[in-house]
């Protein structure tokens, strides 16, 4: 994980008025650049988030009967098969992911929380009950450039008969810090898609970090003509 708090998948609170269909700009290799300027959601109130911590700690009476219930890690073969998302749905899910990652880069987790479902926000609420984490949320601080996510890829976007959706989301693709997760989504009453759960996909291996070469070492290792 890039940062420990990254794993805290975050309510379907109102987004600011942004033209979401115009946000997801892909680079030539298909990745999306999550610039902090795209973090335009209205922040969730910290007090409201903290009020959810107790409720989130109480097991729900509604049994989760999905194939992925209770799982935090899977392999690629475990990804449920659904129908390929239509272009509009795929674009909307890409935009959700773009803004979510952009808010991460901006260090603004309360704005990121606006991209999450009530269940996801409940997970964040439990983390925010830690005073140190709550203080970090209350005072957003952008990550330094070398700590930011350089790009994201949102692939294999599927929809299911129960009205939910999923996608394979890669942060920092092709980078040694790469992480690959299955995101599950629910659709809000406003028609937007919200991240409901995050499950790590463990069989996708990140590239190895390059080994630094000492000055002169490369030349010494190269036979002379």
* Derived structural class: alpha+beta
How can the largest sheet be summarized? 6 strands, mixed
What is the mean pLDDT?
A: 79
Shape: globular
* Separation, N- and C-terminal Cα atoms: 45 Å
**Helix content bin:** 25-40%
Q: Ranges with pLDDT <50 over ≥5 residues? A: 1-28, 217-225
Name the features.
about 220 residues; alpha+beta; 6 strands; disordered N terminus; disordered C terminus
What would you say about this model in short?
With about 220 residues, this protein is of the alpha+beta class. It is about 25% helix and about 15% strand. The radius of gyration is 19 Å and the shape is globular.
What does this protein look like?
There is one protein chain. With 225 residues, the chain is α+β, with helices and mostly antiparallel strands. 25% of the residues lie in helices and 16% in strands. It has helices at 46-50, 53-57, 87-105, 109-112, 118-128, 131-138, 217-221, and strands at residues 73-74, 83-84, 152-159, 165-171, 179-187, 193-201. It has a six-stranded mixed beta sheet with strand order 1-6-5-4-3-2, with helices on one face. A hairpin with a 5-residue loop joins strand 5 (179-187) and strand 6. The longest helix is centred in the middle third of the chain and has 19 residues, at 87-105. The N and C termini lie far apart (45 Å).
